[in-house]
Amino acid sequence: MEKMQEERRPKLSGAADAGGGEDRLGALHDDILIRILLKSDDAATAARTSVLARRWRHLWALLPALYFFRPTDPRRIRSALAAHEAPVLQALAVIAQGDSPGSAGAWLPIAARRLSGTLVFRVLRRSIAIAKKRAALKLPCFENATKIVLRLGFLRLALPPCGVFTRIHLLMLMEVRLRGPCGLGEAVSSPRCPSLRRLVVKDAHGLGDLTIHSECLQKLELFRLPDLQSLTVVAPALQLLKLDHCFVLCSRQPVANISAPHLMWLAWMDNYDQNSVQLGEMAYLQSLVTQHFIMYGEDYHSSHNRNGVCLLRHFEHLHRLVLTLQCPKDIANKKYFMEQITRLPDIKLLELGITACGHSFGASLFHVMRMCTAIRALVLGLNVTLEDEEETVCPSDCICDQPPSWKTKELVLNRLEVIEIYGFRGTEHEINAVKQICSWATVLRRMTVKFHDSITENKAEVLCELLVTFSRLGLDMVFIYRMQ
User: Fold this and answer.
1) C-alpha dist (Å) from residue 188 to 119, 150, 171, 214, 216
2) What are the Basic and acidic residues biased-composition ranges (predicted)?
3) What is the longest distance spanned by two Cα atoms in the chain?
4) For residue 351, what is the enclosing H or E element?
5) Which end of the chain, N or C, is less packed with Cβ atoms under 10 Å?
6) What is the dihedral of CA 14, 19, 21, 27, to 10 degrees?
């Protein structure tokens, strides 16, 4: 009977007049059934479908992807990989409990031999203290994997001392403590990762010196590396470099040597010292993102700002500059530091983020805008801190509006055609700033205002009517607000 069913299956899969008593689902082709099982997004669920019919018993083993999105006994993962029969394993995703990471050694070597696609492995963190006591997880060499994403809950990770990751083009390491004789730079450089195009390292401890020599790397993103002391990158194909709170987490002087002649996008949101950081020639650089600049502060903030100013001076011409200004909530007896910025690169697009904490930012806005009168587009982000959720009213003698001449001094932005404003709440300071921008931009064609999510529909309508009064003939104003 089973033999007859197998012989009839191809015909039944296309039969339009099958009776209600026939197994239409079982008559489907294996490829279609496998697609159905993939929809479960869980290997255990797919395996349990064997109760439906004898023919389904081994279908799960033909799945091109195995997902273990619930904390799973690693022995079951090992068994599943050992029983897997698909010609190619395209993806493997595993979530493990934070107290049993060492058991990953039971299945990782099998995965390294079988996988020809993406590995995603996440450890649910229970305690950093426990993670520190665990033995290092030894990562085998995945010769055929194309993507590896590890988020290990600050477990110790030992990279393989030998072998070539022949096909990998994306490597992401997050929440790890690097240990072992093999350094990260050695593992990801061209001899061992000849196809690597993107490297992301986030919240990694034990990374003191990072040296990368890669002919193929195009994107390098480093976030929060508290132990980093020096960074060397030689990557002729690199197009994007992002450094975010790596050197700033320690008191040591940043030491970096970057050779990336084709770099197009640089985000240096970190400490910068022109004497110890060598950026090399970047003739193709189009976009620069800098660390925040403090508008009012104490004397020790001056050196922080000075480093950022030195970075800005390193570049003459850019297409896009992202600059963030921050103002503390209490600025009484604080010094005004905006005058430290004396020059900006020649740019066409300025993205200016402002965290004003309820204070006026008009004078600082004017100071920046008068140094980039050739811009064609302005994106103004009005950031709100948790402390600033409720509007702060400045005292009458607050220094934030000084010098007041920014409201009367002439400023002509005769190339600025497009303005986008985000997080608009309609405070008096924000309204004054928008009014001045409209008067400065003599050829403005389009202004988009996206209101803060806290703004009700009624208040948004009132603000829209007010902002329209700043308009002139030919200006298209667009307002966006969330429906409450």
Assistant:
1) 17, 15, 9, 8, 11
2) 1-10
3) 94
4) strand 349-355
5) N
6) 0
Residue 230 vs residues 117, 207, 252, 287: alpha-carbon distances, Å: 33, 9, 10, 24
Instruction: Round to whole Å and give the CA distance between 391 and 458.
Output: 18
Instruction: Give the CA distances from residue 358 to residues 323, 331, 455, in Å, rounded to whole numbers and listed in that order.
Output: 19, 11, 16
Residues 438-472, buried b or exposed e (16+ Cβ, 10 A)?
Answer: bbbbeebeebebbbbeebeeeebeebbeebeebee
Question: Are residues 210 and 303 located together in one domain of the fold?
Answer: no
270 and 297 in a single domain? The answer is no
Residue 189 within a domain: no
Here the tokens at position 172 are 């992401």
Per DSSP bridges, beta strands 349-355 and 230-234 are unpaired
Question: Would you say the pTM of this structure is higher than 0.90?
Answer: no
Residue 270 located in a structural domain: yes
Instruction: Mark which of 243, 259, 285 sits at the end of a domain.
Output: 285
Q: Are residues 256 and 386 in the same domain?
A: no
Local confidence pLDDT in tens for the 484 residues of the chain? 344 334 433 333 333 444 445 555 555 555 555 565 555 556 565 555 554 545 555 666 677 888 887 766 777 888 888 877 778 889 899 888 765 555 788 889 999 999 999 999 998 876 555 556 667 889 999 999 999 999 998 888 999 999 999 999 999 999 999 987 789 999 999 999 999 999 999 999 999 999 999 999 999 999 999 999 999 999 999 999 999 999 877 667 889 999 999 999 999 999 899 899 999 999 999 999 999 999 998 888 888 898 889 999 999 999 999 999 999 888 888 888 999 999 999 999 999 999 998 888 999 999 999 999 999 999 999 987 645 545 566 777 788 877 778 888 899 999 999 999 999 999 999 999 999 999 999 999 999 999 999 999 999 999 999 999 998 888 999 999 886 5
Task: Assess whether 446 and 427 both reside in one domain.
Answer: yes
Which residues are bridge partners to 422 per DSSP? 381, 450
Cβ of 165: how many Cβ atoms within 10 Å? 22
Q: Is residue 472 a part of any domain in this protein?
A: yes
Q: Residue 316 and residue 346: Cα distance in Å, rounded? A: 6
Domain containing residue 312:
286-484
Do 382 and 300 belong to one domain?
yes
**How far apart are the C-alpha atoms of 202 and 184, rounded to whole Å?**
13
Residues 467 and 330 in one domain: yes
For the chain, how many structural domains are there in total? 2
Residue 443 lies in a domain: yes
User: Is residue 390 domain-shared with residue 279, that is, in the same domain?
Assistant: no
Q: Which of 251, 285, 319 is the last residue of a domain?
A: 285
CA separation (Å) from 455 to 384, 386, 391, 452, 484? 13, 16, 12, 6, 8
**Taking Cα atoms as reference points, which of 230, 238, 279, 278 lies closest to residue 255?**
230
Nearest to 469 by CA among 441, 431, 442: 431
